[in-house]
Amino acid sequence: MRKARIWDTRQLPAYLSPAEYAALMGLNLKTVQRMCRTGELPAHKVGPRLWRIDKNAALERMNA
Asked: Of 1, 49, 51, which is closest to residue 24 (Cα–Cα)?
């Protein structure tokens, strides 16, 4: 996974949508959705189709 340049993480919302995370990390949206389904990303479902990715856990994973 490519490392994204994030200058100020305080500007990000607490939970990111898969589209926001994909744009931030330079990934394809389908890849992020698959990572949510398989548990590679710290995400949880909101409703039947919406995913939300925890910002802090995702940033920790990115720095690891």
From this structure: 1
Please give the average per-residue pLDDT across 31-50, as a whole number: 92
Rounding to the nearest 10 degrees, give the CA dihedral for residues 40, 46, 50, 56. Answer: -40
3-state SS class at 57: helix
The helix-helix angle for 29-38 and 18-25 (nearest 10°) equals 120
Residue 57 has a CB neighbour count (10 Å cut-off) of 12
Contacts of 16 (CB under 8 A, 6+ apart): 24, 52, 53, 55, 58
Span 3-24, pLDDT tens digits: 555 556 677 888 999 998 898 8
The model's pTM is: 0.77
